[in-house]
Amino acid sequence: MEILKAQLDALINELPDAITVRERIEDVFSVYPFNAFEYTISTLLGRGVLTLEDYYEIRDDYLDRNMFLSLFEISAPRTFGESWAQTHLKGLVPDLQKPSRKLDTAYSGQYDFFLDSKIRIEVKASRAVDANSTEPLYIKALASDSERPFDMNFQQIKPTCCDVFVWIAVWRDVIRYWVLSSNEVEANRYYSKGQHRGNVGEGQLHVHQDNIREFEGYKVASDGLAEAIRGAYQRQMS
Hints:
alpha+beta, three-stranded antiparallel sheet, 8 strands, elongated
C-alpha cells in the first residue's frame, strides 16, 4: 500500500493544482466500490498525467505485491485458521487424511490431519499485520520485506495431542511454512504454557520481528511439506 500511495503521490505532484487535488482526495467519502484510490486514479487518467498503459502496469505490480491480501479480509479467526488453512494444506499435500475413529481409535478431534496411518498433524495459521495499527486487517497487512513490527500468535497449541505442527504464516505477498515436531514446539523458549486459565497442556507461541529468524531451520518450501512432516515425525520418535 505504501508503494502505491507513493506512486500516485508522485503523479499528483505533476498537476498544477496538486494541493487542491490532495484536499479533495482527503475529503472523499468512500462508499463501495468508490473510494479515495478510485477517485485519485480516475482524476489522474482524466488529466492525462496517467496513461492507460501506465495504469495497467501499476495495477499489475500491485497485484504481484498483494497476491494474498484477500486472506486478510477473512474476519472470522476460525474461518481463516481452520477452514482456509486446512484446505490450503490439503491442496499442497494431497496424501493428508482427515482423521476419524476408523483411522485412529483414540481420535476425538484433538488434531487436524493423519498421514501414513500414524502421523498426527495439527495445523496453525496466522497473518502478519502491523502491531502498532488499529486499522482493519486488510489495511494493516504487511509485506514480507516490511520493517514494521508484527506479531503472529499461534494459539491453542497442545503438544501432547499431535506429533507434528505445521504453521502457516501469511504476508501480503508470500505464504511461508514451518514444520516442527511436537517436542520441538514444547521445548521452544518462546512457547508459553497456560494460554487460558484451567486449560492444562495448552499454550501459545508468538513469532515476531525479533525472533522470526530463529525459526529458519524449520522453514519449508510448499513442495517439500510432505517430506518435512515425515522428517519432523522421525525427530519426534527419536
